[in-house]
Amino acid sequence: MEALYPKKKASHFMKPSGLACGALAAALAMSGTALAQAQPASGDIMIRSSVPGATPSAQPGPNTPVPKWAEQSWKVFLDMKAKANGGTKRDANSMPDWSGLWTRDPAGGFVWDADLVREARGLGPGPAKAILDHCWSGDKATFPCPGYLNGALSEEYAQRYRQKLVAVTHDVEWDPLSDCMPPGFPRGALLNPFGRELIVTPNQTWMTSQTLNDIRRIYTDGRGHMPEDAAAPLWNGESVGFWDGDTLVVHTMYVRAHMEMQRLQPDLSDQASFIERIRMTGPDTIEVQATIYDPIALREPWPTTIKFVRMTEPRVRVNMYSCDPNVYQTAEGATDLIIPGQTVTIQREYRDPEAEVAVEKVIEYGGKVLRGEIKPKTAQAGQ
After folding, report:
1. What are the tens digits of pLDDT across the range 336-363?
2. 327 bridge partner residues
3. CA dihedral 219, 235, 278, 84 (to 10 degrees)
4. What is the structure's pLDDT at 12?
5. Residue 310's beta-bridge partner residues?
6. 242, 255 Cβ separation under 8 angstroms
7. 3-state SS string over the chain?
8. pLDDT score for 225
9. Tens digits of residue pLDDT in 234-260
10. Residue 84 pLDDT
11. CA 349 to CA 177: how far, in whole Å?
12. What is d(CA 63, CA 78) in angstroms, rounded to the nearest whole number?
C-alpha cells in the first residue's frame, strides 16, 4: 500500500503572531485622519468616488506581480484581457441586466463537472463507494476518472480524496455549513443549489447567496491582486476582473487551504487559482466557463462549464440560510444532530482558524480504515 497522506503542510501564508495581532489592533484604533495620511505603495492606483471631495483609496495596480504559483492562470487572464483590448468600459447605464434570482441548474448536479454519471453526483456512502470502485484499482488511482471525476488529481490529493471517501462509506462525513462555517470558494459561488443574486455595477460585481448570507466581491475598477506579503487566505478568495463585451472575466486566488468543493468532491490547496468567464446565454440562463489551476492538488488545469437558471417560483426571494445550533461534529469527524429530548456532552478543543481541522479529522479517519486500525463496515474498493 502506498504511503497514506502525511500531516498537513504549513500554509504559504504568513500566520500573524500575537505581537502582530496586537499591532493590528493598535492600527485599527488609530483615527481615520491618521490612516488617511498613509502613503500609497509604488504602483498603486487611486480608486475615486464620484462624491466631490471624497478621499480616494489606494489599491494595488494592475501590474502588481502575483506569486509564482499563480503565474500560469494570471498569464491566461492577461492574455484574455489583451484580446479584449484592455476590457470594455462600462458605466451604470450600460451594465448587463443580471437581475433576479438564480440557482445552479440541477440537471448537472452540484459538483464541479457537469457530465458525471448520476451515482457520482449523489451524497452518502453509496456514491462514495461507487467513486472508489471506479477510480482506484488496488492502491493505484486513475485521474481523470471519466464519468466520476474529470480532475487530474496529484498523487497527494488523490490519496486525500481516497481517505475522505472511505470515511464517508463509514458514515463519517462532515459539511462546513453544518458547523456554521462559510461554504468557501468555489462551492458557495458556483456549486451550491441555493438562491443567489448577481449584482453588477461598473466597479464591482457581487455574487450573493442565501447560504450564511455569503457575499463574493469581484472588483472591476482596474485594480490588481494584493501582493503576496500583504495578502491573507479568504473564504471566497480575492477576485479581480474586466468586461469583455457582455462577458465578465474573473481571476481569483488567495483562497483558504483545503476548501471542500462539495461533500463528495476533493479539496484544493491554498495555491489554487481560478479563471471564470460569466455571461448570459439566454433570458433565463447564465453560463460560467471556469478553470481551476492548482500546482499542488492538480497535474493540469481542470476546466468545466456551469449553468445557472432563473428561479421563477411565485414570490421567491433570497432567504437567510443559517446553521442549526443542534448540529455538532463527532470525535470521528462526522456531522451529527441532537434530536428533541436527547442530551449530548460535547468536548471541544481550540481550533486553529487557519486550519480546516474538521476536514482533516474525516481524512484521518479514512486513513485509519485503510491501515486496518478501524474495522471496515463493508468491503472497500481499493484496499
Report:
1. 778 888 888 877 776 665 555 567 888 9
2. 337
3. 40
4. 59
5. 102
6. no
7. CCCCCCCCCCCCCCCCCHHHHHHHHHHHCCCHHHHHCCCCCCCCEEECCCCCCCCCEEECCCCCCCCHHHHHHHHHHHHHHHHCCCCCCCCCCCCCCCCCCEEECHHHCCCCCCCCCHHHHCCCHHHHHHHHHHHEECCEECCCECCCECCCECHHHHHHHHHHHHHHHCCCCCCHHHHCCCCCCCHHHHHCCCCEEEEECCCEEEEEECECCEEEEEECCCCCCCCHHHCCCECCCEEEEEEECCEEEEEEECECCCCECCCCCCECCCCCEEEEEEEEEECCEEEEEEEEECCCCECCCEEEEEEEEECCCCCCCCCCECCCCCEEECCCCCEEECCCCCCCCCCCCCCCCCCCHHHHHHHHHHHHHHCCCCCCCCCCCCC
8. 98
9. 999 999 999 999 999 999 999 999 888
10. 97
11. 19
12. 10
How far apart, in whole angstroms, are the C-alpha atoms of residue 236 and residue 182?
A: 9
What residues of the chain score a pLDDT lower than 50?
A: 1-10, 16-20, 23-24, 26, 28, 30-36, 379-383
Looking up cell 485521474 gives: 143
Phi, psi angles (nearest 5°) of residue 363:
-65, -40
Beta bridge partners of 214: 209
What amino acid occupies position 309?
V
pLDDT of 32 reads: 47
pTM across the whole model: 0.85
What is residue 333's predicted lDDT score, i.e. its pLDDT? Answer: 67
**Burial of residue 99, with CB atoms counted within 10 A of its CB: 0-12 exposed, 13-18 middle, 19 or more buried:** exposed
Q: How far apart are CA 75 and CA 291, in angstroms?
A: 13
- Separation between Cα atoms, residue 108 and residue 304, nearest integer Å: 11
Distance CA 214, CA 185 (A): 10
Tell me the three cell numbers of residue 32. 481615520
Task: Retrieve residue 372's grid coordinates.
Answer: 486496518
